[in-house]
Amino acid sequence: MRSLCETCGNVREVRTARSRFLLCELSLTDAAYPKYPPQPVVRCDGYRPRNEADEGEPGDRREDR
Ligand code: SF4
User: Does the reported pTM lie above 0.90?
Assistant: First the structure.
């Protein structure tokens, strides 16, 4: 099942050589949200759809070049 976190604007993907973690940035300001929510998350009051502007890192976009 696909997790809400995958499309949430509050998530930050943390990758290591072997694993991938989804860090909920709401956890930084609200103790109700775990830093690494157990996946999959199927319901979340903090969910907000990710904007295209949230995608990638600055400079990642090919049209910027
Ligand atoms: S706000 Fe909810 S859906 Fe969004 S990253 Fe945090 S736990 Fe996942």
Answer: no
CA of 10 to the centre of ligand 1 (A): 6
Report pLDDT for 30.
98
Contacts with 7 (C-beta within 8 Å, 6 or more apart), sequence order: 49, 50
Confidence of residue 1 (pLDDT cuts 50, 70, 90): confident
Handedness of CA 31, 32, 38, 44 (dihedral sign): negative
Q: How far is CA 14 from CA 10, 19, 20, 45, 63, in A?
A: 13, 8, 6, 22, 25
* DSSP assigned state of 62: G
Residues touching ligand 1 (Cβ under 6 Å) are 4-5, 8, 10-11, 24, 26, 33, 37, 41, 44, 46-47
